[in-house]
Design goal:
The complex is a heterodimer of chains A (34) and B (454). Chain A is mostly beta strands and 34 residues long. Chain A is built from no helices and 1 strand. The chains are: A mainly beta (34), B alpha/beta (454). At the A-B interface, strand 1 of A face strand 2, strand 3, helix 3, helix 12 and helix 16 of B.
Chain lengths: 34, 454
């Protein structure tokens, strides 16, 4: 890849241990930026 | 969906592609930005189309090949796989306790009408109501171990003894109930004496300190009931509270209005005054000389860009480093999809209790009889109201389906949507525009701060 520098992939966790409800209620090589 | 955007910092433009469904962020060169924006969003202006047409075919083919690789990998233009139609209801994990429907300030934009919530009377919560509210929270908390109680008003320090009694009671039942309570308070700082600061510091997980920024800006909208300035007292007390926190969570929270669309200066003022955890939020009101209008949005978006540059600069220093609440985004370890769909949890897992013990979906709905949900004394909870809020989910809002920020705003504030867009399920377009801009800037800030020097 010469035109694209991926910062993060799949940052949203949709599987595994999700929805435990204990959080608060209003569980890539870094490169210089192009 | 794929959203392409740019951010200019120190006269250098950075280009990004954001895949909202997978939560993937890519930094790209300008040619790729043009091709991606045209390919996935069909949203190039006339100048950009000319620049796109000037690219040579071999470059375009090479870039499209790289884009194809990411699409196949599921980290670009990835399809929606989240179809949940309702939030969970029946279990509560947070209560906003209206410890006091009374206030010593008379802020012009206050949604709570000087703390009275449009009831034309002032009321202080008794310990008996507070104790029953804690029992109510435990009763409906199900399997959840971590429970939160926010002391809210009006001004909660006007009923400080009851705050202390409620905390003491909750702590006394933690063992037998196998629950852990976290307490927070939102205060205008006027009554923050040294002994109150010490007690709050020992007992609050987070303290929110309300101040709008520069003295003239603050005093134009936040005055005492007798119409005087309390700015010097507020600033001094907030600084003392911040010093006492010594690393524990706190933040100063300001509101900007039509009178200070140059709100980056207010953020700088607060940072220069020694605060390193800062929030500055747009007013939501229909007061003619304060309200944010559509015509103001372009200027506000530019102001956020200016603030992002100031933010990046100051975070490189030792003495002016700060967090800005709306730029705090975690692209690697952010919340799971269930939390993103739940949002604030109002009406479902986050409720408000008035001084008389009546229960409402959140502080914005307090004393609105249409949304009455029960009472802490008879332990009633009307789940039919919860169901309305549970169905108010971002996956079911037509206007949100192609929005790149939908998993960050969760469909917006229910109260604002009702009051300013006409219904709970219709997002308020002004706050949408600001949210999208803040998300773009937050992503760019994360990328710039995380990248090694070239």
């Amino acid at each position: 890849m010469t035109h694209i520098n991926t910062i993060v992939k799949n940052g949203m966790r949709k599987t595994g241990n999700i929805g435990c409800g204990e959080c608060k209620s209003c569980h890539q090589v870094k490169k210089p930026l192009l | 969906m794929t959203h392409s955007f740019s951010f200019t910092y120190h006269d250098r433009a950075y280009y990004f592609m954001w895949d909202s469904e997978s939560g993937s962020l890519h930094n790209v060169d300008f040619a790729t930005f043009l091709i991606a924006k045209n390919r996935f969003e069909h949203d190039l202006d006339e100048d950009q189309l000319k620049q796109l047409n000037s690219l040579n075919k071999s470059d375009i083919d090479e870039i499209n090949s790289e884009l194809d690789t990411l699409v196949k990998e599921g980290v670009l233009d990835s399809p929606c796989t989240v179809f949940t139609k309702s939030k969970r209801i029946g279990e509560i994990k947070a209560l906003c306790l209206h410890i006091c429907h009374d206030c010593n300030l008379k802020c012009r934009y206050c949604f709570a009408d000087e703390g009275t919530y449009h009831t034309r009377s002032r009321a202080h919560m008794s310990f008996e109501v507070g104790k029953n509210a804690i029992d109510y929270l435990v009763k409906y908390s199900g399997h959840r171990e971590n429970l939160e109680v926010d002391f809210f008003g009006g001004e909660p320090l006007m009923n400080f003894d009851v705050v202390k009694q409620i905390v003491e009671y909750a702590r006394s039942i933690e063992g037998e109930t196998r629950k852990k309570f976290s307490f927070t308070m939102t205060t205008n700082c006027v009554l923050l004496s040294d002994d109150k600061i010490k007690w709050l510091n020992d007992n609050m997980t987070n303290v929110v300190l309300s101040i709008d920024g520069r003295k003239d800006i603050n005093d134009a909208v936040r005055k005492t009931v007798s119409g005087k300035s309390a700015f010097d007292v507020i600033l001094r007390n907030a600084q003392k509270m911040k010093e006492a926190r010594n690393g524990k969570e706190y933040y100063v929270r300001g509101t900007y209005t039509a009178k200070n669309l140059d709100f980056a200066k207010d953020v700088e003022f607060l940072n220069d005054a020694g605060f390193d955890q800062i929030s500055m939020e747009p007013v939501v009101t229909d007061i003619p000389d304060l309200k944010i209008t559509k015509e103001m949005v372009p200027q506000i978006l530019k102001e956020y860009e200016k603030l992002a540059e100031i933010y990046l600069d100051r975070r490189k220093t030792k003495d002016k480093w700060f967090n800005f609440f709306h730029f705090m985004i975690d692209i690697e370890l952010g919340p799971c999809v269930v939390k993103r769909l739940t949002g604030c949890g109002s009406g479902c897992e986050y409720l408000a209790v008035t001084p008389t013990g009546d229960v409402f979906p959140c502080h914005q709905f307090a004393e609105n009889k249409e949304y009455y949900m029960g009472n802490v004394f008879d332990k009633s909870l009307d789940l039919s109201v919860s169901e309305k809020f549970a169905k108010n989910i971002v996956t079911q809002k037509p206007a949100c389906q192609d929005c790149p920020a939908k998993y960050y705003c969760s469909g917006g504030c229910c109260a604002n949507n009702i009051n300013f867009a006409g219904s709970m399920n219709t997002p308020y377009d002004i706050t949408c525009a600001l949210e999208k801009k803040r998300m773009d800037l937050s992503l760019a800030i994360q990328a710039i701060e995380g990248a090694p020097e070239a």
